[in-house]
Amino acid sequence: MNAVLIAVALSLVSAVTYAAAAVSQERLASRSPGTGTLRLLGSGAWWWSVGLNASAALLHVVALRYGPLTVVQPLGALTLVAAVPMGARMAGRRVSAVEWKGTALTLLGLGAILVTASGPAPHDVLSVPEAVAVAGATAALIGVLSRPGARPGLRHATASGLASGVASALTQTVTVAATDRSGPVLSVQVVGVALLVAAFAAGGLLLSQTAYRGGLGGPLAMVTLANPLAAAVIGLSLLGERLQGGAAGVLPALAGAGLASWGVVLLSRAAPADAAVDDDHPVAAVLALEPGSAAAEPALVPRPYGPGHLTPATR
User: pLDDT 10s digit of each residue in the chain, 315 long?
Assistant: First the structure.
């Protein structure tokens, strides 16, 4: 089977798993907005979301072995697409016209990106100095975004998306370097970059948990947009990835990115007016809860998004 097709298939399953993890995280955050990190460690629901994140991350790691960042990362937008019908079905309502439109635009945009970004299985990796430079610059930017101030949910979601996108780029370096058989599996490059992956993955998860205190839609949409952007910048500038058609491929890629972004924004703002919610079901409850409320409301959480992704741990 074509390597890119394998990457796409794995990314699809990973996105659905990330969606389930995202709604689980948001439910916990909305019901316990003041809960600190230490208290979360004693919560079975939080560990359930961590397990879902870990499963999705593993699928994502394998996908990165077969497909370039410019293909795998945009597919993270399917996390939000998957959450919409999942939540609608469990809440006992139909998908709204706006949600269908957002889904269609997102899928069309992703299709255009995949056509222009399709390429061979990755071979280039980040050197240790490049990995350290990328990690340092990203950590500094995350520090700025995480400062106290207005709209903390969206800023933390952006930081989470950046952390996850960089973690994915670093993960690809680890998987390619560890499996190319040109050197020891546990080389300094592999071990050092793997430690950076762990740090950014954990940071992205905690940042997303903080972001979801303001609801699911807006933060998840921001994560969804920031994640592939960060990964694409690294892939195109440092890993030798190229768009199909050279300069001519830039316009279709930008058009696809615009369509996908528009679709993601529509999905993040969709709010059905009437929806009967089964509060005992985690997906239905999380998509219907207002932040800080312990009871289901007949609307989605406020909108203004993530991989990888929720912030996917390595998306």
Answer: 578 888 889 999 998 888 888 777 766 665 655 555 566 666 677 778 788 888 988 898 888 888 888 788 888 878 878 877 776 666 677 878 888 888 888 888 888 877 777 666 667 788 889 999 999 999 999 999 988 766 677 888 889 999 988 998 898 888 888 877 666 667 777 888 999 999 998 888 888 878 877 666 677 777 877 888 888 888 888 887 777 766 677 788 888 888 888 887 887 776 444 343 333 333 333 333 333 433 333 333 333 333 444 344 445
| Crossing angle (nearest 10°) for helices 188-211 and 128-145 | 10
Identify the CA nearest to 221 among candidates 107, 80, 93: 80
Angle, helix 44-66 to helix 3-31, in steps of 10 degrees = 160
Tell me whether residue 186 is exposed, middle or buried, using C-beta atoms within 10 angstroms of its C-beta: 0 to 12, 13 to 18, 19 or more. Answer: exposed
Cβ of 37: how many Cβ atoms within 10 Å? 10
pTM of the prediction?
0.65
249 Rama sector, left if φ>0, alpha if ψ -120 to 50, beta otherwise? alpha
DSSP 289: B
- Which pair of tokens denotes residue 199? 């740090």
